[in-house]
Amino acid sequence: MSATTTAYATCPLCEATCGLELRLANGDGVVGIRGDAEDVFSHGFVCPKGASLKALHEDPDRLRAPLVRRGGELVETTWEEAFAEIDRRLPPLLEEHGRDAVAVYVGNPGAHNLATLLYGRVLIKALGTRNIYSASTVDQMPKQISAGLMFGTILSVPIPDVDRTDHLLILGANPLHSNGSLLTAPDMRGRLRGIRKRGGRIVVIDPRRTRTAEEADEHHFIRPGTDALFLFALVHVIFDEELDAPGALAEHASGMDMVRELARGFPPEAVAEGCGIPADEIRRMARELAGARSAAVYGRIGTCTQEFGTLASWLVDVLNVVTGNLDRPGGAMFPKAAAGQPNSQGSGGSGRGVTLGRWHSRVRGLPEAYGELPVACLAEEIDTPGDGQVRALVTIAGNPAVSTPNSGRLASALEGLDFMVSMDVYVNETTRHADVVLPGPSPLQRPHYDLALYQLAVRNVANYSPPVMEPDASVPQEWETLLRLTAIATGQGPDGDVDALDDFVAGELVRREVARPGGALEGGDAGEVLAALDGRRGPERLLDLSLRAGPYDLTLADLEAAPHGIDLGELRPRVPEVLRTASGRIELAPEPIVADVGRLRAALERHHNGGMVLVGRRHLRSNNSWMHNLEPLVRGKERCTAHVHPDDAARLGLVDGEPARVSSRAGIVEVPVEVTDAVMPGVVSIPHGWGHDVDGVRLEVASAHAGTNSNILADETLVDPLSGNAVLNGIPVELAPVRAAAPVA
After folding, report:
1. Alpha-carbon distance 583 to 349, whole Å?
2. Tally of CB atoms within 10 A around 296
């Protein structure tokens, strides 16, 4: 029997950051994975995704060598030939058509990868393009817009203090399946049960009776896309009945009177029909929220991926402020991360705030936000001729051909590109179009630290994981690949000096830190700081620097000596030092948001004709499109089905288990029907991230469990105007049995 050793790591497959204990056998690799009982954050909790890391590492479809297109086929090649092909084709294209002729798309896995977080921005800057896209604009961008306008930075997102709250109002979120989103909190089931055990209350507002709703004290169906109406009605009641009690927040907040005036136009009686919740229930919920000893309002993807996503996200935190629950234990609080958090560094209480719309997309004129454009306009930027047309694309750990609206149009557009490079470990629905595919190592073969997610955690923690297994010398680390691409983009050729580029990146960051007012390294000697980092390269050196510049006097060596992580304590009040708005105050009524309220007011006049609308859904064993090739996560009952209420099924002639045709302005799909009263009448729910049955993918397991790509139905012309976020919930659709000749309205 082979000798076994034990290693500890943080799971990189979702936002929960659970600690793992891995048993390794010489010659046999990973022989067991379970939760790390000593992890300071997750305390042994683990979901099925964490245990699937062994399957991911061993997956025969995971690429171990680069691919290049030859004779119309992707074939294995050497790294030298792959970079030479990129150098041969990309720089001449940029020289002829300009830097904006290349676009970059960064996928969701990039947020879970230290190398892409730190070095992806280096490549983007080197490319010099304004055509930057990411999964953010099919996900959380509305929350980041509202948080930036109210509190000052992209990640100034208040997090519900679920471990101490007495009342939790959840909208459009299913943390028992997502494991928490913009809410890093392992074991959400245990944390929610803790609220009820201590006598607290959980209220869920969702067009589906989700697994989270089943754990709640009460659940209310809501018509998709109307969360902002419901939230404004809560604000109305709180002001109208003089239940507002911002307490000490009042001296740090501007715009309270403006919010009060805006809320007058949204009494419960005016919004009840539109959102589907009775006026008296809205009034009761408002009173209970305001009267709770402590309370937090939490909205997630269902409140973001809709036409009023930014308004809904804003109103969540308006409620947290006017009830006095922002920035206090049991309310919605600001984490203080050990590394990389803009509102944890420098002098607090003032800043530059955020500036939006610095440039606009070429075809539709959609505004930029935080340096990127809405991915809903990527297809048109590729397939619309003219000056500035996108002719080349670089994708980094993303699958936009499945995850973005009107996927059919984007897939066709990708076919028309002059050149495409993908950094990915699979040939999937997107990378099948690439001319060069550059894989990275297995997650078990690279270091890990959750630079982004600890900025959204319910407790201040820090946990670093060195590579669990010996890296494959034939596969470069992603940071090395990104720097080689940077060398090509800056004219240094395919054999650019990666070490020199890495030294330049580290040196620039050190100079920035020693010059930052109020920072931990302010006024230090840049040479001495660099010398203290000596011996480290790549993301580990940059992480060490970020820790040293952070608020806890930590180094990477400290984390290396603590394999189960370091507990930095519960969340603590941070207003006003957390604020980075230009005024140094909480901006309750930012001008762009106030200007958009009229659009919401007009929605009150809409007539609901009884038609069907589409929403998505999540599952514990899935994370968007990127884990469907792992047998342990797709086995069992088919999950890619259309949930339809029994009344709608009877009216439309739909039969449980039989296929239905679902159509929208953008496209048509067929999907098996699952009749259930867990979805409200008038709503059909199809999970996103599926549709693996297209030609050219090399995903044996996923192809056998292909499912349906619901984003074929999503309309790329529908976006939340403030954030550019795609509207993926509340899309008008028609359903009919496949056997019928025409749709039934």
Report:
1. 8
2. 30
